[in-house]
Each structure stands twice: as C-alpha cells, then as structure tokens.
Amino acid sequence: MNCKIATAQPNHRGLKHDLNLFDSFEFQGPHGQHLCLVTDVLGYSLQYIRTIRDRHVRRLPSALTKRVAKQTLLALEYLHDVCGIVQADLKPDNILFHVSDVDAVVAHELVDDPSRSYGGGTHLVPPVVPIVSQPILDPVPPTQLEAVLADVGHSHWKDHHFQELI
C-alpha cells in the first residue's frame, strides 16, 4: 500500500498529507526480522497537541481544527479516490505534523537527547544502523502546521477488505 501511495498520482493535492515512503529494507534484530520504512521526518501527533497545554483539556482552537480537518480530508481523498485504499484507523494518534526545518529541529533535539541505536547494523552497502525512534518537537505556530495521515497499517483496498469489522 505504501508503494501505491507514493507513486499513484504525484501531483495530487492530497499526497503531501499522506505519509511519504522513500525506501524500505529488512533488518534482522534481536527479536526477529523487521521491515523498516524510510519516511518523512514528522513531529508530534494531533493527540499530543490536544494534551500539551492541560492534561484535562482535549479541545483545539477552531482555526486549527478546521485546518487539520481539511488536510485530513485531502489525505483521505487521495487514499480512497486515487489509490483505492480505505483508511480504517483514523484517530488523533495517527495524524502527525510535518517538521518546518528538519535539519535545525533535529540538530537541536539531538543536543538534548542523543540518538540510541538498536545495536548492530544491516548487511546493506553502505550499512544502515537502525536508530530508536524519538519524538521531535517543532516550535511551529498552529497556523503553519501541515497534517500528515501517518498510519495505513489497518487499511485495506476498496475492493478487497482484510476484515469485515472496522
């Protein structure tokens, strides 16, 4: 599915709001074989934004809600109408945001919290060393946030459902 999303219609207005797959590779780790996906660097989730100010307040400003809703609908339009994919796990945890200046934000975060590797690399040439995922917090004003629908793991094709209950 990720390959279809990446290649179906590169100029579609909704593509930039779906997770961009650059590459993939397999990694033999201590817990078995893993398929690793190389994607956009993304920041925090909508769920995180909902709880950032006050752990009890779950509301978002209406301007941000409208912006995220529009961008999510564009992502869903691309998935459904262009790729033939039904997104079956739409929730605030699966809506992430583009990072404004990846290099600057990552460099700043790595000073405070250096990356940790899983230990060991791959047999690829050049070798790839898998790094433990860590959150990246981007101080972007809410009016500039660009939403990305990030998880198609529970999705299915329009004409072939993997399960009947969603």
From TrEMBL:
Signal peptide: none
Reaction catalysed by this enzyme: L-threonyl-[protein] + ATP = O-phospho-L-threonyl-[protein] + ADP + H(+); L-seryl-[protein] + ATP = O-phospho-L-seryl-[protein] + ADP + H(+)
Example of a GO cellular component annotation carried by this entry: nucleus
Pfam family, one: Pkinase
Alphabetically ordered keywords of this record: ATP-binding, Kinase, Nucleotide-binding, Serine/threonine-protein kinase, Transferase
Gene3D superfamilies in UniProt: Phosphorylase Kinase, domain 1, Transferase(Phosphotransferase) domain 1
Molecular function terms from GO: ATP binding; protein serine/threonine kinase activity
Enzyme Commission identifier(s): 2.7.11.1
One BP term from GO: regulation of mRNA processing
Residue span, Protein kinase domain: 1-166
Domain of life, per lineage: Eukaryota
PROSITE patterns, A to Z: PROTEIN_KINASE_DOM
Protein name: non-specific serine/threonine protein kinase
Species per Swiss-Prot/TrEMBL record: Collybiopsis confluens
